[in-house]
Amino acid sequence: MMNNEPIKRALKHLSEAGVPADTDLWPGIQAQLAVRTGARRAIRKGRFSMNNTLPRLRPARALGISALALMLVLAGLMATTQGRALAASVLQFFSPAPAASFETAPVAPGAGPTAQPPAFTETGCDAADLACQVGAAEDVTGLAAPRLPASTGTLSLRAVEVAADREWLRLIYTAETGGGLALTKSHVPLSGPVWESVPAGAAEAVTVRGYAGEYVRGTFVVGAGSAEAVWNADAPVQRLRWQEDGVIYEIQQMVGSSSDPHFDKDGLIAIGANLP
Amino acid sequence: MIDSLRQEKQAIAALKRGEVAALEVLVRRYQLRAIRAAYLVVRDRAAAEDIVQAAFLRAYDRIEQFDESRPFGPWFLRSVLNDALKAAGRQQRFVSLDGAASGDEPAAELADVLADPAPGPEALAELAEQQQAVWHALGQLAPAQRAAIVLRYYLDLSENEMAAHSGSRPGTIKWRLHSARQRLRTLLWASAPAGSATAAPIGTTREGNDE
In terms of CB atoms within 10 Å, which of A42, A135, B105, B127 comes out highest? Predict the structure, then answer.
């Protein structure tokens, strides 16, 4: 009669000794999802509704609101000495956050996706044929897709996204470990919910192939049971934006595990220098 | 248990509706078992965590394709083991996938190599030594053999379940398990101190052929 209990017991003990019971992947997964879903809403510890169903503002309206918000923020800031100092680092490519922390509001589920892929089926693309989808995305947006240079190694094209109004397209490259890069080109300034905004002083002015841009590391984080979103400059989210000939570029890095390919600010700028 | 399964099904349905937060239910439920299973194959905690995290993200990406009538756990854990096997294969440079066994070797059971240590005080120290021996021997197995051992004896999958997942015939799985057990037995036997009762296969001597 076979007795497998000894080996089962040995495997159980070995695995428990090697991986403690308090190991928790959820914060890291949340961080990646916050970026990958395009929602980039918030990262919470504990029970949390990180919906990816917030409506994305239509670009024209978003632009207007962003401009208004920017003007209001600037008006307030310029009234103080501190504000005048901050004005030196005013955001050009990112929406300014109302503050380094702000109250969050419940979000109604099912409000609609942030972005919908173009009707690739109408263009004859198979759902798994990403090369075809890239071509379709280029056709409907009139933008050359920001394909990643081959030199970036282990990242593979995972998804193609196009704004419902066809104003921008995005290629998402990921590694086997889940992290990666999202590369976006847009006819209009990129805007989004307040979660994607950036506090004053968090953006660093950079130059990408001779064009002015901004680099940001960090994102807003919402603690468990809290209604307050707080800027976390150490969150593994990096964004680089710049503008060339009327087209906005964005490179966003998603890092969720130590094995993910990691690019620092200079690495992202180097990637940007080689995008079509 | 029923509540737990219901909660899992609800989470999967919610994920399909785009409610990302529902993934937490699945992560909380399966992460530890998945990491530990991957750890036994890749033998590196950080690598195991990376594998499982990536598997959860992939499950999220592909949740639309998941058949809700099937249980999530076995499907997910097998995909984790597949990834761990690939990762271990990349690490492995010197062990043949065929290992040392052949199909016509004696059908000694892996468990026979380990004297069952009744958890009495005298056996506890010996148990620790046995675990180290098992850990070392597992490391000597080919990744495919290690994964087979983990699937069968850690995740408790039946041979038929293993076959269904891998697309192999049950006979192939049976042979793979047999060869893994045989190889593990040989390794444990070879590493055991002379005169040890813990590693010598029952009914054999260290000097003799175990057949």
Answer: A42
